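Tokens as discussed.
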């Protein structure tokens, strides 16, 4: 039996400042229940709390814990919920730059040393950009239409070089086309720096707006369709603007670069090589290679084409690691075997997962750029 004198007094009633082992009988607090000793009451209280804890744990196991976990996963790990919170998340870096860094850049005249020094408000609020490039008639516009599940305004598809402009596909109030001058002069769009490439380029640049309720993917992404890369110096001279410089700007500001190849056009022309070199070492992690129209090849032809493509890429990409090449069919409605259909569906799911990850990585990239400015 525990000695009652050594058990600490519980505080059910107000206790004087010096109440305790040295206090008198009148000052010492009394137990709230008559006839129950201190240790016995503590034991009964602990048993009662243990029973309550068991009932709470049983209730949580029966469904409360599942509901709580579902709410946590829905709030923190839901992809749709995270995408909706990204614009609000970028308000803090924008405020830090405008209030702290931008006045310092103006004081030191930083724009005289670095032409893209200023980070505008459109840089923080614009949606992630996906750049699609390749040689002519490789399926660039068709791939964008498949990802959008709709055709953007001004789309033309054919075996000849049809896309002769840089087209920025974005979300808007209605389906319409905007000239490049309007896009570059709009401060809410991230294309202001493209004005340095001259009016000849702005004539070859336009925007295609589509309602976000009709094309949900445009609520968190924007796409850029590019002209088909031609072969020969005559086409390079006839463009009348710095094609490689424009491609390098889009690649630097894009969050994902999709490079398409045709099984019948595996040779890399001089202009295409310069475009891939213009991507730069900073953009190597953004590049995803896609071998389009792969359903026209059997297994042996696919192995030969894959090897030839790797040999061609080895001349351009200075990397010891072999890049992954996605295989894509020219159309979704094809008469394929069950094995081939499963394979192409898996490849398409992996590529769509890359696109789904772009908005999440975009926030990290912009914070990294802001940190690079500080460094």
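Sequence:
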């Amino acid at each position: 039996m525990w000695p009652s004198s050594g058990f600490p007094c519980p505080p059910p009633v107000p206790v004087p400042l010096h109440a305790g082992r040295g206090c008198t009988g009148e000052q010492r607090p009394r137990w709230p229940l008559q006839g129950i000793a201190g240790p016995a009451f503590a034991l009964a209280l602990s048993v009662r709390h243990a029973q309550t804890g068991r009932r709470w744990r049983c209730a949580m196991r029966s469904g409360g814990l599942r509901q709580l976990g579902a709410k946590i996963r829905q709030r923190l790990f839901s992809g749709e919920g995270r995408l909706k919170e990204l614009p609000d998340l970028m308000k803090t870096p924008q405020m830090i730059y405008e209030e702290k860094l931008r006045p310092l850049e103006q004081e030191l005249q930083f724009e005289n040393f670095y032409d893209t020094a200023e980070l505008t408000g459109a840089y923080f609020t614009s949606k992630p950009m996906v750049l699609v490039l390749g040689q002519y008639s490789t399926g660039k516009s068709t791939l964008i239409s498949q990802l959008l599940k709709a055709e953007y305004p001004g789309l033309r598809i054919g075996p000849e070089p049809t896309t002769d402009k840089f087209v920025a596909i974005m979300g808007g109030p209605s389906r319409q086309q905007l000239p490049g001058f309007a896009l570059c002069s709009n401060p809410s769009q991230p294309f202001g720096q493209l004005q340095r490439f001259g009016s000849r380029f702005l004539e070859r640049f336009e925007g295609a707006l589509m309602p976000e309720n009709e094309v949900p993917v445009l609520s968190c992404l924007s796409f850029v369709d590019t002209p088909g890369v031609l072969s020969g110096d005559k086409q390079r001279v006839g463009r009348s603007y710095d094609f490689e410089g424009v491609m390098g700007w889009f690649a630097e500001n894009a969050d994902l670069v999709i490079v398409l190849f045709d099984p019948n056009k595996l040779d890399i022309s001089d202009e295409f090589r310069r475009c891939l070199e213009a991507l730069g070492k900073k953009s190597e992690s953004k590049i995803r290679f896609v071998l389009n129209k792969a359903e026209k090849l059997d297994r042996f032809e696919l192995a030969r084409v894959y090897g030839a493509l790797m040999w061609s890429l080895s001349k351009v990409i200075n990397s010891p690691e072999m890049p992954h090449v996605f295989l894509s069919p020219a159309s979704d409605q094809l008469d394929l075997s069950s094995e081939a259909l499963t394979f192409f569906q898996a490849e398409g799911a992996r590529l769509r997962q890359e696109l789904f990850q772009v908005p999440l990585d975009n926030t990290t990239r912009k914070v990294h750029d802001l940190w690079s400015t500080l460094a």
